[in-house]
Amino acid sequence: MIIDTESHVLYRVFPREMNPDRPMTFRASWHEYSGDLFADEMKRSGVDKSFLISYDADDIRWYLELEGADQNDQIGGRKYTLVSAVQKYPERFLWFATQKDPRRPDTLERTRKDLADGALGMKIFPAFLQLRLDDPLLLDVYKVVAEAGRRIIFSFEDTRPPATPSVGEYYEQLDHVLKQFPDLKVQINHAGAGDPKDPVSDPLNPEAKIIFDVVNKHDNVWLSTAWLGKVWDDEWEYPYPKYLSRLERLYRGVGAERLFWATDWPWLEEHMNYPQAVNCIKRHATFFSESEKKLFLGDNAHAFVKDLLPNYGRAPIFQKAGA
Protein backbone atom coordinates (compact mmCIF):
# COMPACT_ATOMS: atom_id res chain seq x y z
CA MET A 1 0.00 0.00 0.00
CA ILE A 2 1.20 3.50 -0.89
CA ILE A 3 -0.18 6.47 1.07
CA ASP A 4 0.52 10.13 0.40
CA THR A 5 0.41 11.86 3.79
CA GLU A 6 0.00 15.45 2.61
CA SER A 7 -2.18 16.60 -0.27
CA HIS A 8 -4.87 19.12 -1.16
CA VAL A 9 -7.45 19.84 -3.83
CA LEU A 10 -7.74 23.42 -5.05
CA TYR A 11 -10.06 25.32 -7.34
CA ARG A 12 -7.85 28.40 -7.69
CA VAL A 13 -5.00 30.00 -5.78
CA PHE A 14 -3.89 33.53 -6.74
CA PRO A 15 -6.33 33.55 -9.70
CA ARG A 16 -4.77 35.12 -12.78
CA GLU A 17 -7.81 37.32 -13.31
CA MET A 18 -6.76 39.18 -10.14
CA ASN A 19 -3.04 38.34 -10.24
CA PRO A 20 -1.93 38.82 -13.87
CA ASP A 21 1.74 38.81 -12.88
CA ARG A 22 1.56 35.16 -11.84
CA PRO A 23 3.28 33.06 -14.52
CA MET A 24 1.22 30.56 -16.49
CA THR A 25 3.58 27.87 -15.19
CA PHE A 26 1.97 28.34 -11.76
CA ARG A 27 -1.01 26.36 -12.97
CA ALA A 28 -3.07 26.65 -9.79
CA SER A 29 -3.74 30.27 -10.77
CA TRP A 30 -5.82 29.11 -13.76
CA HIS A 31 -6.07 25.29 -13.57
CA GLU A 32 -8.41 23.40 -11.25
CA TYR A 33 -6.84 20.64 -9.15
CA SER A 34 -9.99 18.66 -8.41
CA GLY A 35 -10.71 15.37 -6.71
CA ASP A 36 -11.32 13.77 -10.11
CA LEU A 37 -7.90 14.84 -11.37
CA PHE A 38 -6.10 13.76 -8.20
CA ALA A 39 -7.85 10.38 -8.14
CA ASP A 40 -6.64 9.73 -11.69
CA GLU A 41 -3.12 10.89 -10.83
CA MET A 42 -3.10 8.47 -7.91
CA LYS A 43 -4.40 5.64 -10.08
CA ARG A 44 -1.75 6.07 -12.78
CA SER A 45 0.98 6.37 -10.13
CA GLY A 46 -0.02 3.33 -8.07
CA VAL A 47 -0.93 5.36 -4.97
CA ASP A 48 -3.73 3.82 -2.90
CA LYS A 49 -4.73 6.54 -0.44
CA SER A 50 -3.91 10.10 0.54
CA PHE A 51 -4.33 12.28 3.60
CA LEU A 52 -6.35 15.10 2.03
CA ILE A 53 -6.15 18.33 4.01
CA SER A 54 -8.80 21.02 3.56
CA TYR A 55 -8.25 24.66 4.42
CA ASP A 56 -10.46 27.69 3.97
CA ALA A 57 -9.06 31.07 2.98
CA ASP A 58 -9.26 32.40 6.53
CA ASP A 59 -7.25 29.39 7.77
CA ILE A 60 -4.24 30.46 5.67
CA ARG A 61 -4.67 34.23 5.90
CA TRP A 62 -1.16 34.63 7.40
CA TYR A 63 0.40 32.95 4.35
CA LEU A 64 -1.75 34.92 1.90
CA GLU A 65 -0.80 38.21 3.52
CA LEU A 66 2.90 37.31 3.41
CA GLU A 67 2.37 36.81 -0.34
CA GLY A 68 0.78 40.26 -0.65
CA ALA A 69 -2.61 38.67 -1.20
CA ASP A 70 -5.89 38.35 0.70
CA GLN A 71 -8.68 35.84 1.26
CA ASN A 72 -10.07 36.39 -2.25
CA ASP A 73 -6.94 34.70 -3.58
CA GLN A 74 -7.81 31.21 -2.27
CA ILE A 75 -10.84 29.50 -3.80
CA GLY A 76 -11.60 26.05 -2.47
CA GLY A 77 -11.69 24.96 1.14
CA ARG A 78 -13.58 22.53 3.32
CA LYS A 79 -16.80 22.17 1.29
CA TYR A 80 -14.94 22.02 -2.03
CA THR A 81 -12.64 19.31 -0.65
CA LEU A 82 -15.54 17.25 0.63
CA VAL A 83 -17.75 17.57 -2.45
CA SER A 84 -15.10 17.33 -5.17
CA ALA A 85 -13.01 14.62 -3.55
CA VAL A 86 -13.80 12.99 -0.21
CA GLN A 87 -17.45 12.11 -0.85
CA LYS A 88 -16.73 10.87 -4.37
CA TYR A 89 -13.65 8.80 -3.51
CA PRO A 90 -13.80 7.82 0.18
CA GLU A 91 -11.71 4.74 -0.57
CA ARG A 92 -8.85 7.02 -1.71
CA PHE A 93 -9.06 10.23 0.31
CA LEU A 94 -8.68 10.36 4.09
CA TRP A 95 -9.85 13.78 5.22
CA PHE A 96 -8.10 16.08 7.72
CA ALA A 97 -9.54 19.53 8.48
CA THR A 98 -7.54 22.64 9.30
CA GLN A 99 -7.96 24.03 12.80
CA LYS A 100 -9.79 27.34 13.12
CA ASP A 101 -8.25 30.11 15.20
CA PRO A 102 -8.76 29.04 18.83
CA ARG A 103 -9.35 32.66 19.83
CA ARG A 104 -12.79 32.33 18.22
CA PRO A 105 -15.46 31.48 20.77
CA ASP A 106 -16.89 28.73 18.57
CA THR A 107 -13.58 27.01 17.81
CA LEU A 108 -13.90 23.93 19.99
CA GLU A 109 -17.48 23.43 18.80
CA ARG A 110 -16.30 23.61 15.18
CA THR A 111 -13.46 21.21 15.92
CA ARG A 112 -15.89 18.69 17.40
CA LYS A 113 -18.11 19.11 14.33
CA ASP A 114 -15.22 18.38 11.95
CA LEU A 115 -14.40 15.23 13.90
CA ALA A 116 -18.05 14.19 14.04
CA ASP A 117 -18.30 14.77 10.30
CA GLY A 118 -15.54 12.28 9.69
CA ALA A 119 -12.23 14.15 9.84
CA LEU A 120 -9.46 11.80 10.98
CA GLY A 121 -7.78 14.71 12.69
CA MET A 122 -6.91 18.38 12.64
CA LYS A 123 -4.14 20.19 10.79
CA ILE A 124 -2.64 23.08 12.76
CA PHE A 125 -0.48 25.93 11.41
CA PRO A 126 0.75 27.50 14.68
CA ALA A 127 2.70 30.28 12.96
CA PHE A 128 -0.38 31.26 10.91
CA LEU A 129 -2.18 31.62 14.23
CA GLN A 130 0.82 33.42 15.78
CA LEU A 131 0.62 31.13 18.79
CA ARG A 132 3.03 28.99 20.73
CA LEU A 133 2.45 25.26 20.37
CA ASP A 134 1.84 25.00 24.11
CA ASP A 135 -0.55 27.94 24.30
CA PRO A 136 -3.49 27.02 26.59
CA LEU A 137 -5.92 27.63 23.72
CA LEU A 138 -4.18 24.99 21.62
CA LEU A 139 -3.87 22.64 24.59
CA ASP A 140 -7.67 22.67 24.74
CA VAL A 141 -7.78 21.66 21.07
CA TYR A 142 -5.35 18.78 21.61
CA LYS A 143 -7.52 17.56 24.47
CA VAL A 144 -10.63 17.48 22.26
CA VAL A 145 -8.77 15.62 19.52
CA ALA A 146 -7.18 13.19 21.96
CA GLU A 147 -10.52 12.44 23.63
CA ALA A 148 -11.98 11.66 20.19
CA GLY A 149 -9.07 9.29 19.48
CA ARG A 150 -8.06 11.26 16.36
CA ARG A 151 -4.79 12.68 15.07
CA ILE A 152 -2.96 16.01 14.90
CA ILE A 153 -0.93 17.26 11.94
CA PHE A 154 1.41 20.19 12.59
CA SER A 155 3.16 22.35 10.04
CA PHE A 156 5.61 25.00 11.21
CA GLU A 157 5.40 27.00 7.99
CA ASP A 158 6.20 30.67 7.45
CA THR A 159 7.65 31.45 10.86
CA ARG A 160 8.52 35.11 11.28
CA PRO A 161 10.14 35.81 14.66
CA PRO A 162 9.41 37.78 16.77
CA ALA A 163 5.79 37.72 15.54
CA THR A 164 5.96 33.93 15.76
CA PRO A 165 8.28 31.45 17.46
CA SER A 166 11.17 30.14 15.38
CA VAL A 167 11.22 26.58 14.02
CA GLY A 168 13.64 25.54 16.77
CA GLU A 169 11.37 27.06 19.42
CA TYR A 170 8.42 25.18 17.99
CA TYR A 171 10.37 21.94 18.36
CA GLU A 172 11.14 22.76 21.99
CA GLN A 173 7.43 23.40 22.56
CA LEU A 174 6.54 20.21 20.69
CA ASP A 175 8.66 18.25 23.16
CA HIS A 176 6.52 19.59 26.02
CA VAL A 177 3.25 18.92 24.19
CA LEU A 178 4.16 15.33 23.37
CA LYS A 179 4.98 14.73 27.03
CA GLN A 180 1.56 16.05 28.06
CA PHE A 181 -0.28 13.99 25.43
CA PRO A 182 1.69 10.73 25.12
CA ASP A 183 -1.23 8.88 23.51
CA LEU A 184 -1.99 11.55 20.89
CA LYS A 185 -0.53 10.51 17.53
CA VAL A 186 1.11 13.45 15.75
CA GLN A 187 2.36 13.99 12.20
CA ILE A 188 4.79 16.82 11.40
CA ASN A 189 4.64 18.06 7.80
CA HIS A 190 7.77 19.15 5.90
CA ALA A 191 9.68 17.42 8.72
CA GLY A 192 8.26 20.18 10.89
CA ALA A 193 10.08 22.98 9.16
CA GLY A 194 8.87 25.60 6.76
CA ASP A 195 11.08 28.66 6.67
CA PRO A 196 14.06 28.43 4.30
CA LYS A 197 15.73 31.30 6.19
CA ASP A 198 15.76 29.32 9.45
CA PRO A 199 18.71 26.87 9.61
CA VAL A 200 16.63 24.33 11.56
CA SER A 201 14.37 24.03 8.51
CA ASP A 202 16.96 22.25 6.38
CA PRO A 203 17.83 18.69 7.51
CA LEU A 204 21.28 19.13 5.99
CA ASN A 205 22.17 21.85 8.50
CA PRO A 206 23.66 20.90 11.89
CA GLU A 207 21.01 23.04 13.62
CA ALA A 208 18.39 20.52 12.46
CA LYS A 209 19.65 18.09 15.10
CA ILE A 210 16.83 19.28 17.35
CA ILE A 211 14.40 17.54 14.96
CA PHE A 212 16.12 14.21 15.52
CA ASP A 213 16.45 14.75 19.26
CA VAL A 214 12.74 15.47 19.78
CA VAL A 215 11.45 12.74 17.46
CA ASN A 216 13.72 10.12 19.00
CA LYS A 217 12.45 10.96 22.51
CA HIS A 218 8.80 10.22 21.70
CA ASP A 219 7.05 7.25 20.17
CA ASN A 220 3.91 9.17 19.15
CA VAL A 221 5.34 11.49 16.48
CA TRP A 222 6.21 10.93 12.80
CA LEU A 223 7.74 13.13 10.10
CA SER A 224 5.99 13.67 6.79
CA THR A 225 8.49 14.52 4.08
CA ALA A 226 7.09 16.64 1.25
CA TRP A 227 9.04 19.77 0.27
CA LEU A 228 11.47 19.40 3.15
CA GLY A 229 11.93 22.66 5.01
CA LYS A 230 10.01 24.35 2.16
CA VAL A 231 13.35 24.26 0.34
CA TRP A 232 13.27 23.18 -3.31
CA ASP A 233 16.57 23.64 -5.09
CA ASP A 234 16.44 20.74 -7.56
CA GLU A 235 14.48 22.81 -10.10
CA TRP A 236 13.33 20.11 -12.61
CA GLU A 237 16.25 17.71 -12.22
CA TYR A 238 14.68 14.27 -11.78
CA PRO A 239 15.23 12.22 -9.61
CA TYR A 240 15.68 15.29 -7.38
CA PRO A 241 19.04 14.49 -5.77
CA LYS A 242 18.95 17.36 -3.27
CA TYR A 243 15.51 16.34 -2.05
CA LEU A 244 16.77 12.76 -1.71
CA SER A 245 19.85 13.93 0.19
CA ARG A 246 17.62 15.73 2.71
CA LEU A 247 15.41 12.68 3.00
CA GLU A 248 18.45 10.48 3.58
CA ARG A 249 19.61 12.81 6.35
CA LEU A 250 16.24 12.39 8.07
CA TYR A 251 16.49 8.64 7.59
CA ARG A 252 19.93 8.57 9.22
CA GLY A 253 18.61 10.73 12.05
CA VAL A 254 15.34 9.01 13.00
CA GLY A 255 15.09 5.78 10.96
CA ALA A 256 12.63 4.65 8.31
CA GLU A 257 10.00 3.74 10.92
CA ARG A 258 9.41 7.42 11.80
CA LEU A 259 9.02 8.76 8.26
CA PHE A 260 5.97 9.16 5.99
CA TRP A 261 6.04 9.73 2.23
CA ALA A 262 4.21 12.84 1.02
CA THR A 263 3.98 15.17 -1.98
CA ASP A 264 2.02 18.30 -0.92
CA TRP A 265 0.16 17.88 -4.24
CA PRO A 266 -0.35 20.06 -6.22
CA TRP A 267 1.99 22.73 -4.79
CA LEU A 268 5.15 21.28 -6.35
CA GLU A 269 3.66 20.22 -9.66
CA GLU A 270 5.51 22.91 -11.56
CA HIS A 271 8.71 21.02 -10.69
CA MET A 272 7.63 17.40 -10.23
CA ASN A 273 4.68 15.47 -11.62
CA TYR A 274 2.94 12.84 -9.53
CA PRO A 275 4.45 9.67 -11.03
CA GLN A 276 7.90 11.20 -10.64
CA ALA A 277 7.20 11.83 -6.94
CA VAL A 278 6.56 8.11 -6.49
CA ASN A 279 9.32 6.84 -8.75
CA CYS A 280 12.08 9.00 -7.30
CA ILE A 281 11.56 6.93 -4.13
CA LYS A 282 10.86 3.54 -5.69
CA ARG A 283 13.77 3.68 -8.13
CA HIS A 284 16.30 6.09 -6.67
CA ALA A 285 16.08 6.22 -2.84
CA THR A 286 18.84 3.63 -2.60
CA PHE A 287 19.57 4.36 1.07
CA PHE A 288 16.32 2.53 1.94
CA SER A 289 16.18 -1.25 1.87
CA GLU A 290 13.17 -2.68 0.03
CA SER A 291 11.42 -3.39 3.31
CA GLU A 292 12.14 0.16 4.49
CA LYS A 293 10.68 1.57 1.28
CA LYS A 294 7.44 -0.26 2.07
CA LEU A 295 7.39 1.27 5.52
CA PHE A 296 8.11 4.75 4.19
CA LEU A 297 5.73 4.67 1.23
CA GLY A 298 2.71 3.47 3.13
CA ASP A 299 2.96 0.93 5.91
CA ASN A 300 3.92 3.51 8.54
CA ALA A 301 1.06 5.81 7.53
CA HIS A 302 -1.42 2.93 7.46
CA ALA A 303 -0.44 2.01 11.02
CA PHE A 304 -0.91 5.67 12.01
CA VAL A 305 -4.63 5.64 11.05
CA LYS A 306 -5.69 2.01 10.68
CA ASP A 307 -7.77 1.91 13.87
CA LEU A 308 -9.84 4.83 12.49
CA LEU A 309 -10.57 3.28 9.09
CA PRO A 310 -13.33 0.71 9.88
CA ASN A 311 -15.83 3.53 10.52
CA TYR A 312 -14.42 6.00 8.00
CA GLY A 313 -17.01 7.30 5.55
CA ARG A 314 -20.04 6.61 7.74
CA ALA A 315 -20.57 10.14 9.07
CA PRO A 316 -23.46 12.20 7.58
CA ILE A 317 -20.98 14.56 5.93
CA PHE A 318 -20.08 11.82 3.46
CA GLN A 319 -23.62 11.91 2.13
CA LYS A 320 -24.02 15.70 2.02
CA ALA A 321 -21.33 18.32 2.60
CA GLY A 322 -22.04 20.99 5.20
CA ALA A 323 -21.16 24.65 4.97
In words, what does this structure look like?
The chain has a domain at 96-318: Alpha-Beta Barrel (TIM Barrel). Helices cover 35% and strands 12% of the residues. The protein has eleven helices and ten strands. An eight-stranded parallel beta sheet has the order 1-3-5-6-7-8-9-10, with helices on both faces. It has a two-stranded antiparallel ribbon with strand order 2-4. It is globular, with a radius of gyration of 18 Å. The model has no long low-confidence stretch (mean pLDDT 95).
List the helices and strands and how they pair.
Elements: E1 3-7, E2 12-13, H1 35-45, E3 49-54, H2 61-66, E4 74-75, H3 78-86, E5 93-98, H4 107-116, E6 121-124, H5 126-129, H6 136-147, E7 151-154, H7 167-180, E8 186-188, H8 209-217, E9 221-224, H9 241-254, E10 259-260, H10 274-282, H11 290-305
